Amino acid sequence: MISGKTSEKVEEYAFGGLVAAIGIFTLVDATTIAARADNAVGPRAFPYAVGALLVVTGVAAIVATARGRLGQAEEGEDVDSGVRTDWVTVGKLVAVLVAHLVLIGLVGWPVAAAVLFFGAAWTLGAVWWRALPIAVVLALVVQVVFAWGLGLSLPAGIFEGVPFLDG
């Protein structure tokens, strides 16, 4: 039988190893992504960054465990078990997500994303007249970052032909 302290160390080592292994898998898998040679950043940048951070985090967890720094066991969650699930809010969020999925093909990413961002924020209690312009700006920023920064094409939809929105 393994003692409590030894069992905790094994679990911490396993966690660190798993995180590092997922990072290595991500780095290796990112090499299979096809990218144009003319783009400096390209679609591999994000997987490389995430993979590298996962490897560093996993190795750091292993080193910390080897030095005797174990994570603290949680006493319990700070959750009120008497509160019931708000199924109306869950339903609204699901409806907003489904609307987003349907709208991408019909009107393009910028409009669909604006609907998603606005709908989720409004459903969760944001003031509509603040959430709407923020959602529109955020959707356009994501479109521009993907189109120009990463060289990836999100469907422009009704904005097809607008130079800074086409990937």
UniProtKB/TrEMBL annotation:
Signal peptide coordinates: none
Domain DUF1468: 14-155
Record's keyword annotation contains Transmembrane helix: yes
Keywords: Membrane, Transmembrane, Transmembrane helix
A Pfam short name: TctB
Domain of life: Bacteria
Annotated TM spans: 12-33, 45-64, 93-122, 128-150
Record's protein name: DUF1468 domain-containing protein
